[in-house]
Amino acid sequence: MTFAAVTSKVSRTLRALKRPRTTGGLIRQAELYRREGRYAEAGQLVTRALQLSPRHVLAHLLRAYLHVACRETSAAKTAFAQVLALDAHQPRALLGLGRIAIEEGDVWNARTFLERALKLYPEFPEAAALLDILADAPPRTVESQPASPPDVSATPVLRLTPVGARDLVLARADGTLVVAEADAQRRDDLAGGLAQIFRIAAATAARCGLGAVEGGVIETADERTFARTDGNLVLGVTFPRAVELGFGLLAVDNLWTDSIHTARVPA
Amino acid sequence: MTALGTASEAGRSRAAAFRDALRDLVGLDHVRGGALVAPDGFVIAAQLPPGVEGDAVAALVATLGRQLELGAARLGRGALAVAQFSAAGGALLLCETPVGFLVVLGDRHGTTESLRAALRRAGASIGVAWLPESVSEADSPAGKVPVPPAARANGGA
Q: What is d(CA A170, CA A183) in angstroms, rounded to the nearest whole number?
């Protein structure tokens, strides 16, 4: 056996000796891994903890968090629901379900979960912060809103989109479409999504002491979306990623004035 | 880490690397604070200005980050890179890392281009620090616990 192989074997043995064997030990170690973003390893430990103690509330809660971290929304919902089945007053499970409901555009459920959490713990800063988002949110599920029919549009045609740009939308803070120059199948989705992002950004900026949000740039692998808002309306337009930041910002400023004028919306 | 180093030793250095990346970012001119927030709203590291409630901001940052991810995916725009929001009193910038969302608060005088570049650098260094030696998708009786999408995008397991 080589020196490296011996070293590796000793290392494995030492790790095995240090490996937690109790539910509490497994959860503590999983929490440490979670703090380091080692979600897969934390998940393995939580699974072992739940095998030892299937009704352990904290283990179920941790499993729910790990599913959220891995963007497994459906599994996270199930895990949070299991926490509530074991402890109906678990505020963090209510918060988790409230956050998922916001993510899904389900305002009614989001408000219900967050208000329940706040009723149990009036000093619950996370729940209060998430409720800020819902102040101007539409009353019903974003997904349930019917898309504008492709051939019959209730919104004016703008013909303002700069060359190379697309998905120009002007929406109210609640996600209602005001005007759009975008594919008819996705204009409601664009308006609802943009308004939702700016509602959350506004709540975040306010909590950070930055004041009112005035605009933004959302950069993805392929595109740059430039936006401007006054709190009541939000305008967005998307360019290819290569567009200069200054050019896009200037374009959205011009579009702001023009689209409000064209749509005859009081600014 | 030595050949006999344990997982927790590796973890300590990883957590320290996250804090270092955040400290370097927050130490820049015109930066008021920042935080690294897990997608579930857990605060991994934070250096926020006095009076800013970390847990509340983290819950919002995680929700914002997730909404940006979902919007980009739904509209076929590719993975989220950087989002920047300009406000009356400064700017808020956010990027995705394999660990979670990295957010920075800039003052009114900072140029957004330099802040964006600094945020990207910090996000990249967090990604490098996170890269596990041998993390794989784990099968378990409770089901698979996969690696977060940003980790895959950054070359993680």
A: 14
